[in-house]
## 1
Amino acid sequence: MPDFHLPLNLYLERYPHKNTALYHALKDMIASGKLEYGAKLPSSRELGGLYKLSRGIVSLVYEMLASEGYVASEVGRGTYVAFRRDGLPGKEERPVRESACELSAWGRRVAELPTRKPEEGPRPAIDFAVGYSDRRHFPASDWNRMLFAQVRGMADSYYGDKFAALGHMPLREAICRHLQRARGVDADPSSVAIVNGSMHAIALIAQLLIDPGQAAVVENPGYPGTLSAIAAAGGRPIAAAVDGHGLVPADWDAKLVFVTPARQFPTGAVLSLERRQRLLAWAYEHGAIVVEDDYDSEFRHRGRPIEPLKVLDRQDRVVYIGTFTRTMMHHFRIGYAVLPSALCEPFARARQLFEPHPTSILEQRALAAFMNGGDYERHLRRMGRVYSRKFELLRGELARKLPDLFAPAPSDAGLHLFARWKRSAGFYEAFRRECRNEGVLWSDGTGYYVEKPAPAACFGFAHVSEEEIIEGIARMRAVADRMFAE
Amino acid sequence: MPDFHLPLNLYLERYPHKNTALYHALKDMIASGKLEYGAKLPSSRELGGLYKLSRGIVSLVYEMLASEGYVASEVGRGTYVAFRRDGLPGKEERPVRESACELSAWGRRVAELPTRKPEEGPRPAIDFAVGYSDRRHFPASDWNRMLFAQVRGMADSYYGDKFAALGHMPLREAICRHLQRARGVDADPSSVAIVNGSMHAIALIAQLLIDPGQAAVVENPGYPGTLSAIAAAGGRPIAAAVDGHGLVPADWDAKLVFVTPARQFPTGAVLSLERRQRLLAWAYEHGAIVVEDDYDSEFRHRGRPIEPLKVLDRQDRVVYIGTFTRTMMHHFRIGYAVLPSALCEPFARARQLFEPHPTSILEQRALAAFMNGGDYERHLRRMGRVYSRKFELLRGELARKLPDLFAPAPSDAGLHLFARWKRSAGFYEAFRRECRNEGVLWSDGTGYYVEKPAPAACFGFAHVSEEEIIEGIARMRAVADRMFAE
């Protein structure tokens, strides 16, 4: 098959790994119709030979494409394109009259939520995006073994988890033991709710506590999801100031505050003990609920942690939220909320309204086993070392190479660095666009401001290799030298 | 270890399988403290010898208990109890003052939703419960192979599904192909939303469309979840009559109706074509949305299906909901909604508010592969034969053995039989209790009435073996003979 041509080099520039590059190259050719329905593909040996790829890589990519319906294999026929571009009727062929429908007040609010659009075009090779983890160091074989054991064991759990609206009880118990060891939180498993990622808990709590017109306090800058949750409930956000010691307490007229004490999102500031106590005193006085989002304090590179609000709380006013997405994998959407007694029952009912039976029960069970066997703690310890190295490297490179452009906020923990842009605001977008053209991107920190936005960058480093950190900052320096030379 | 005693026979009466019986026997002894922390358990060979169990069964049960943290193994020490009853602090030890919190109007409505309490005590050996599937005939090894392949492949899908709020696109495409073949529905993948079970779609749609005080039509009897969804949104349910041809259309003053046309839940009646057309005409006139819940029409034992409302609809007013829970496994919480264009964007936003990234992505990918490879259709065909045999057997046994007690509603499809109680209402509960004592139970149909409840039974037969069907009905006959002899 000598006339088979694939623009693989183009894709290798975009995707760091050969298999991902090959996957996207083939998929795009099929989806665009350049490889037509029924077209025969080279054997894995032939294709491997043509593009200097191992046969295993080609086979893996063919398997992925087959599982998505793009290709199929038959004995005697080999692998061929199984995707018909015209296989599904387009909208224009349907004799259906589209018509509007009246949304509820909630529906209208949700439909009008601002969206953070995905960046257009392919992601560049070096991508300091926030929210990922290091998959190269993930103990995939240990984890898969746990998962496989649960897959095989599931046939026997028949009635088992049917009424566990708040999630798999052994996982909730394992989380309590972990929280006690790692954060000093004394939680009862009955007060722990498993959720599908921390945003799930934030949105349910906002809906449970906020009536239209009511106020809720958010950090500025802060996590945009919190703002969406408040807006969907019809609430009125009060933007609280943030400085080098985290959120600045004030005498807000509100019943609810969302805060990230362990590591302010996105700045990384640690809420001081004195402010923690003031915040709790405010909550007691106003009968308010404090939602403590502890989204990535598992990884502390220096210094000692301060006790969570949940530990300091003596009036059962704090919801403590944690997630496994950052410590496990990006697609692993399991988080949890430790609830005040007064919220346990309403939260369970709310959870159960949408999902009468728990989802991800396989992953919940595997995670319980992973935690109970000690693998999770071991994984955290090992990743802590990996991330600390990357953290120090990135901090150093930013300070050495880009001191004129970015002012990184002091930070001792976590998986990203927040840095304010030091030059005039007008240059920021142009610089970002130029860097992108050079194959380097970062999460835009500007969008995290509730009001008075200032240009800033969020450099997520968890999934980026040490070589890529050095190369990425060097490319940014080169762009800056070109742009700001005069 | 001759003094190790386990009440296994007691558990074998409750649990049909040896491994489940052994699992619960050991777990209960550990949880109750009869087996204390640190206590050594017999080796799998010893325990197998004592209770005539294969070593493999004992090992599997030990593994399950280990994954839940009840036992642990160490080289040289064997398997021992790892669960401390006093390992977690109880509420009474916490110096925390519990305090109430003010819920939103939505929170108060959710907290006051009626709950269907789980039946107390262990489920009896023969349990005609609704909502399960036949796990003995499930192609577990084929499915597990798909799942394992996805587990191994996941490392490569990094950015892949990040912005797919409505779910994994290849799965949505596979669902469209399936719906076209099986139900004649022409759906565009962009209008298909993956949800965590059909209740997830029902609750989100109710919240998107119903404002407090607004009316929504439900079937009487009908699915209690629909009623909860309406109540949570603050809506006012209108109970529509149901007869042998399904829901009876009327000129309701409402903007939303929930209906189960393929097989009315729970009666099994098929909505006639004429009524389908009247229902759509009503929706067009009132600008209403029709939610068509097609929860188990995959299994048709006789006759031909009528076209779904979604196919008959010419004004894009129908939401079509389906689920894989009944066709796959009970713990497999994946369903979907085919949305009218006007609802796609609001539904995606609502979904994304709670879950910015899709959950169960592993299972979504594996299911897409399972469907694209033809395994799903094969599985449905084979299960169709299995279920048809059970369906005919149960119908026959009910007619032959219990004609004085139950009047089964005519039904041609699905996985349960609805049967009205023929004797006086006062006897129904007593009969049910007595049967339970004899090891037979069924889902109570009485609770499905929105108003004017009448005693009725729902016999779910999917997970019950043919022998158990015969034995269960025979035991019920024996109870009836004893109770109603005089």
Note: Residues 87-94, 158-163 of chain A have pLDDT under 50 and may be disordered.
## 2
Amino acid sequence: MGIIRLSHVDITVPDLDLATAYYTEVMGMLETGRTDDRVFFKCWDEEDHHSLAIRYDPRVGIDRFSFKVEAEDDLEDLERRIERYGFRVHRVHRGEEVGQGESIRFETPSGHEMELVHEVEKVGSLLPKVNPRPYPTGLKGIAPPRMDHLLVTAEEVPEATRFYMEVLGFRLTEQLLDGDGHQIGVWLERSHTPHDLAVVSGPNGGLHHFAFWLDDWDEVRRAADILAYNAVQIDVGPTRHGITRGATIYFFDPLGTRNEVFTGGYRPDPDFPTITWTEDNVGKAIFYYEGELNERFMKVHT
Amino acid sequence: MGIIRLSHVDITVPDLDLATAYYTEVMGMLETGRTDDRVFFKCWDEEDHHSLAIRYDPRVGIDRFSFKVEAEDDLEDLERRIERYGFRVHRVHRGEEVGQGESIRFETPSGHEMELVHEVEKVGSLLPKVNPRPYPTGLKGIAPPRMDHLLVTAEEVPEATRFYMEVLGFRLTEQLLDGDGHQIGVWLERSHTPHDLAVVSGPNGGLHHFAFWLDDWDEVRRAADILAYNAVQIDVGPTRHGITRGATIYFFDPLGTRNEVFTGGYRPDPDFPTITWTEDNVGKAIFYYEGELNERFMKVHT
Amino acid sequence: MGIIRLSHVDITVPDLDLATAYYTEVMGMLETGRTDDRVFFKCWDEEDHHSLAIRYDPRVGIDRFSFKVEAEDDLEDLERRIERYGFRVHRVHRGEEVGQGESIRFETPSGHEMELVHEVEKVGSLLPKVNPRPYPTGLKGIAPPRMDHLLVTAEEVPEATRFYMEVLGFRLTEQLLDGDGHQIGVWLERSHTPHDLAVVSGPNGGLHHFAFWLDDWDEVRRAADILAYNAVQIDVGPTRHGITRGATIYFFDPLGTRNEVFTGGYRPDPDFPTITWTEDNVGKAIFYYEGELNERFMKVHT
Amino acid sequence: MGIIRLSHVDITVPDLDLATAYYTEVMGMLETGRTDDRVFFKCWDEEDHHSLAIRYDPRVGIDRFSFKVEAEDDLEDLERRIERYGFRVHRVHRGEEVGQGESIRFETPSGHEMELVHEVEKVGSLLPKVNPRPYPTGLKGIAPPRMDHLLVTAEEVPEATRFYMEVLGFRLTEQLLDGDGHQIGVWLERSHTPHDLAVVSGPNGGLHHFAFWLDDWDEVRRAADILAYNAVQIDVGPTRHGITRGATIYFFDPLGTRNEVFTGGYRPDPDFPTITWTEDNVGKAIFYYEGELNERFMKVHT
């Protein structure tokens, strides 16, 4: 019970058309809804209404991220826990938000607006529920099957971690410690994957990237081919992370929000023993092949 | 809370040495314990004491399968639920069983002895918990990172399914229906994978196979190379399942227990809508490329 | 100098429309020409006019196979050698055959009509010759980059082999010997690949299959997905050959001609030492994973 | 007839032991010979005595590169052509050089000592010639099956190209032109691969890198894992080349000679139409994903 996975990320973009063109033609998501100032997208294997929402705003940024809970009761239960921890919770009622029912919103210690939602409109994946084939035809671009995780920045990583773990029930798969043994990066999961949410040192409220799942290393190459052909700026990769063991490419959407495609990694159950990285290994921890971080990766977030 | 994953499968073999040679040299598991009539094995990325136990017996068969629960309390809670459902539960106390603490055992409607365990001796994976590399060196044979699932046979699949779902909390990802709409195969999960446990029509108490996870399709080819080189009889594959979408090879250990290597598939969360296969698609459901089942696959179990 | 590669295979089909639909939509070749009773196809990365021609005939069969020579002079030179060996050579003049210039045709000791051609109309690949991307967009079906080789049957394999080697300059990469040490299968190359032409025991004039190149094992899986989705009957595979080491799938076009997709294998230069397989290893030689041949593979040819 | 492939590259290293440890333990070549100041290595699937020779010298550099010719007569024929072009040819007689018979050596317009050799001692690959398995066991490190090509630098690329093509018979698969249409990079082949030898602008006599063949993109990832684990500095990659379409990693041996692992690319026959890249696409031409060259790649050679 409790949180089951990342539901959607809501970002702001200064050009809805350009962002829509990119997320549908290059990333290969499907547009599932649109209002005056917002567009909604899902991946082909996702059942829910959307996993990405973009809103027009002159500034590139993040409005909020939303996680889905398993049961109706989880909302009330978690609302109580959040308030007991000292944060005000705001209810968003059914009908107020596109594609979903009742939800709660609150600010986290990392300075982000977070949402928890139980009921999301089912629009269905691109495959039938009876005798399906393994994947659909007619996909465009990279076409990841689903959104995977996001990484945000926080001034006080340990404090944010405590909240995500103690109040929301996230489990710590990996952590990066500075020379004094303080957490400067944490990787947290609820869905038996290496991470659903990660937090690294940086300004409060920042979005470092959100990531799409790919099925294997060959899909990573294909993604790189498509990005290069479409003149999308690749930040780093294809490479491997030391943390999570996953294979990855970082790149930027045309408005400047960092995206990732990600695959691989282990499968951590709730009894998974936390892996620790020390600061002298930070290069390999993040980019196992390069063994060092680039400036852009460290400094740029939205 | 509740069951988090398959813990171990306990089978019987008429030749401990031959089976041990196969599971260590060809499959590439690690021997982690041994008694007069039993040998215990784990995969390299598993932390717990064993995921496979073999016991000497003149007949090839299955003693039991064991699932791990998240919390100490889960044992008592599930014990109550099982007894309320009408099955007697037997306690195995700490110290009675190799490599694990308190557990409960009971017969299921599919005629299997099942075990639930919370505390298992940690022997650790082959990687350190500080600054690990992505995988260890010196592995032998196929060397899967972990055990994945098992498939058992039952005379009354719907009845077994009800028990596994209502009492033990498994979720139904896929089902195969006969012409009358009755379940003749079900795929059940607790760990956000396409299946941790599957049940198909057959005699009560039978084991169709247990499966090891591989990381991708190239590992499947490598496994086939190793099996062929070691003259291990391949039953079917490399091929793809319609059900689970996974890639697979079926083959037999030298004593006749069917093994599988498996990779791929989707990632079902608890809100995953069940997929249904109809009997006229059974060939593609099981072996998507062949489109038909072989006799051996249908008839042979242990 | 001399033969540089397989140019095209000319087969007969009892249904031009059905065959065309299959070779364009499922196999993903491009139609490059058409006459009253013939259709011509090429793969996307091939420059020449066609690598496959189909002709209407009530019977499924092979008209001829054609190899390309490097220089104009090679035609005359090889014509002399063939006639000296005792076979009559027939000249086909420029303008007589679609998409190509002067060629010579002759019957081989394996009972096939073979053609050698130097000048072939260039229609170009799907990629530009200036600043190309790695592969084109908009491909359909399997879309192999090129035709790779063909395998024919002959009553007297050693005699056919002598002709192909001594007269036409093929080099022997692998051979399969029966218990008396006689060749029952040979693999021959001119283009630094494991085989451009292979001959196995069977009736004179038979076509066992022709094969398309795929770039890797993941493309083999994708091909199997497409074949299965299109209900194309798979004969064997995905599997690996012992001979050539290549990965493969055999299957039949809708009229009954066997096709193969093939990848991998070593890169033999002219100094490559021949590999020999003995009859007791014939199963592994042909299908390394299965270790045995199926009846259909042995008996069916066109 | 003529040149069939790269035979070996002879480099100098200031530390024979360190270089030997790297080329055997990390690269996974086999040591096949040793003299006072030289060590010889081959890859596991190569039949000839060596494809790499290292000689002790305080300076890192290249002594020569050697190509193999198909027939004994080729040596005399090419000797005449080279002398007619105006270069002096030096004969190295059987017994003078380790592991090979008669050869000729000469300086090329790119300022390199080049060797042509026909007879090379056969030490055999690691696989038997009768009923082999697809690859051997017990390999160490990256273990490429063979050496693939080398890239050298020349002050006057067009002049060097003319020599390699007109005198030695290389064919031009791709070329990179500056704004004035002059060649600043050429890719040349003799073995139906995208390149056996490449030349780019730079000082005469320089070695940019030599490259090992890998079988696919998954082997590229495995190579990167091994390099990273062994703390070998990766220059660029894993990435894709625009030129050749191949997948690649560049890195340095511990003494500073650049190595590459390479896979993929098309299969050019002698009738392959040359591909041209213009200088404004140089970034994509070399590193398709990054779209730009790094300083190190441009400046560092040995």
Note: The first helix of chain B runs from residue 16 to 26.
